[in-house]
């Protein structure tokens, strides 16, 4: 099952379903529709799990600049983490309403960061989503398991996540 | 400025030639790929033309490498009984490079050949070793000159450089700017009394032995800038600036190095540090001249060098590989259920 999104081609040979989740075309069977909610780019249903995929590149930070806010490195970093966490949380809500959180969920952020920065970004993102149980006494469920969040680039995807499928950058 | 080095059967190298930038040269590579050897061979060559110098190239090589005998500097390989190193320099306006070379045999014979190398005594070279020496400076120089103690000469040399007197007059604008940056980072200024270094600030004077080692490194830089050891036409070699330095201070180090390069100091840095390299990448702009040299072993186990100005093109990159491995293991661990 092949999905082309944001200049990337994903191929999930074993997927039950895989489609562009942030679909804006009202005629598409996968039309998102809840315009107030942020959405990840790709939704994959595997036999035993769901995989949420969000693609972000440095160029996407241009959106942040367009918002007219003061731009500095610190704010751009916060913007990136805030956006990635919000996309996950609101997609989770959407899937809850669809009745589709019946399998373990994985969240993969496909970013063009090197491995060291990806490690840092994962740590910040895990805190912001948050992964695991934020309140051990009161929470009985997790938004996302601590070990189910990955921040990768194309090469790291193809080294480590081929159990789901492959990812290829198609160019601009 | 140093333009090139050529090795033939010398220490870790069978055959290697590396051309350098007149600005900043960053040496990368795993342990055992000869980064420090390149810097020491260059430093020894530069030291020969230092106005204070009294040693020949082979003598200086012997004292900075500290082998049991000079013949030990010949690369160990079958059928080889001699090796050589040759260093080239050019002030930028000369039609051909000056050079100095040393040919060494396993029978401990050394022959030095020079081409206009010693005609002008300048380019004072400074080598900052991995270990801090300022805290151990008191009486170390006397001990080093009077007794046989097993220390490479770079450790004694750096104390000599730090103890150079401060020139009279007002420091230049660039120098004042650099000292202010360091002043802010270490919260004070460095002074010296009877070969003992202190950090002086509002709270008083703190001996270097009581100061964090990272601050001592910046303190050394302070002294070298203040006494104008690092000045136009000089060469700075810094082995692993990141050692004992909190990564937060890497930004300051890189800022200082880039400013020194703009002032006309040629710089050689050997590093294993992601943060330092990233700081160079982020800070590099039109004014900066940074060349990255990656030393690596080829399929035959021989050391080769790949040089690039593009940080994304650095290959093989041992630092990135280490982070990739961490990332891969973290992901794979998540699936081990």
Characterization of the model:
The complex is a heterodimer of chains A (172) and B (337). Chain A has helices at residues 61-66, 73-98, 115-128, 154-160, and strands at 2-5, 8-11, 17-20, 42-45, 50-56, 105-111, 149-152, 166-169. With 172 residues, chain A is α/β, with parallel strands linked by helices. Chain A has one domain (2-169). In chain A, β1 (2-5) and β2 (8-11) form a beta hairpin. In chain A, α2 (73-98) packs across α3 (115-128). The radius of gyration of chain A is 16 Å and the shape is globular. Chain B has 337 residues and is α/β, with parallel strands linked by helices. Chain B has one domain (2-335): Rossmann fold (3-Layer(aba) Sandwich), CATH 3.40.50. Chain B is built from 9 helices and 14 strands. In chain B, the strands form 3 sheets. Chain B has a 6-stranded mixed sheet with strand order 7-11-12-3-13-14. In chain B, strands 2-1-4-5-6 form a 5-stranded antiparallel sheet, covered by helices on one side. A 3-stranded antiparallel sheet of chain B has the order 8-9-10. In chain B, β8 and β9 (196-201) form a beta hairpin. The interface between A and B is medium-sized, with 15 and 15 residues.
């Amino acid at each position: 099952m092949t999905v082309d999104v944001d200049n990337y081609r994903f191929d999930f040979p074993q997927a039950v379903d895989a489609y562009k989740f942030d679909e804006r075309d009202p005629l598409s069977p996968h039309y998102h529709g809840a315009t107030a909610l942020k959405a990840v780019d790709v939704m994959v249903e595997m036999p035993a799990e769901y995989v949420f995929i969000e693609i972000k590149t440095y160029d996407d930070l241009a959106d942040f600049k367009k918002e007219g806010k003061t731009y500095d490195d610190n704010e751009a970093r916060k913007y990136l983490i805030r956006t990635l966490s919000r996309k996950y949380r609101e997609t989770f809500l959407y899937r809850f309403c669809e009745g589709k959180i019946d399998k373990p969920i994985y969240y993969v952020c496909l970013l063009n960061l090197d491995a060291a920065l990806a490690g840092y970004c994962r740590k910040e993102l895990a805190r912001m989503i948050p992964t695991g149980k934020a309140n051990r006494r009161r929470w009985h469920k997790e938004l996302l398991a601590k070990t189910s969040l990955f921040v990768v680039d194309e090469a790291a995807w193809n080294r480590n996540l081929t159990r789901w499928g492959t990812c290829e950058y198609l160019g601009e | 400025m140093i333009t090139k080095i050529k090795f033939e059967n010398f220490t870790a190298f069978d055959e290697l030639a590396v051309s350098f930038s007149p600005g900043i040269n960053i040496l990368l590579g795993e342990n055992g790929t000869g980064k420090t050897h390149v810097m020491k061979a260059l430093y020894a060559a530069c030291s020969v033309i230092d106005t204070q110098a009294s040693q020949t190239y082979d003598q200086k090589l012997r004292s900075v490498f500290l082998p049991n005998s000079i013949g030990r500097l010949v690369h160990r390989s079958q059928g080889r009984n001699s090796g050589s190193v040759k260093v080239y320099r050019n002030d930028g306006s000369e039609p051909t490079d000056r050079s100095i070379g040393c040919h060494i045999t396993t029978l401990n014979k050394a022959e030095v050949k020079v081409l206009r190398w010693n005609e002008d005594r300048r380019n004072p070279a400074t080598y900052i070793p991995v270990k801090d020496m300022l805290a151990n400076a008191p009486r170390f120089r006397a001990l080093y000159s009077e007794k046989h103690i097993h220390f490479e000469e770079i450790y004694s040399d750096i104390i000599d450089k730090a103890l150079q007197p401060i020139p009279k007059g007002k420091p230049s604008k660039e120098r004042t700017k650099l000292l202010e940056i360091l002043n802010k980072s270490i919260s004070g200024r460095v002074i010296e009394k009877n070969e003992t270094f202190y950090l002086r600030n509002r709270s008083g004077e703190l001996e270097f032995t009581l100061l964090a080692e990272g601050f001592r490194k910046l303190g050394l830089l302070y002294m070298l800038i203040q006494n104008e050891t690092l000045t136009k036409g000089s060469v700075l070699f810094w082995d692993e600036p990141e050692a004992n330095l909190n990564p937060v201070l890497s930004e300051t180090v890189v800022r200082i190095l880039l400013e020194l390069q703009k002032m006309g100091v040629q710089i050689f840095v050997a590093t294993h540090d992601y943060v330092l390299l990233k700081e160079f990448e982020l800070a590099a702009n039109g004014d900066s001249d940074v060349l990255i040299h990656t030393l690596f072993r080829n399929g035959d186990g021989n050391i080769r060098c790949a040089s690039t100005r593009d940080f994304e093109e650095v290959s093989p990159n041992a630092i990135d590989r280490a982070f990739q491995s961490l990332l891969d293991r973290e992901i794979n661990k998540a699936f081990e259920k």
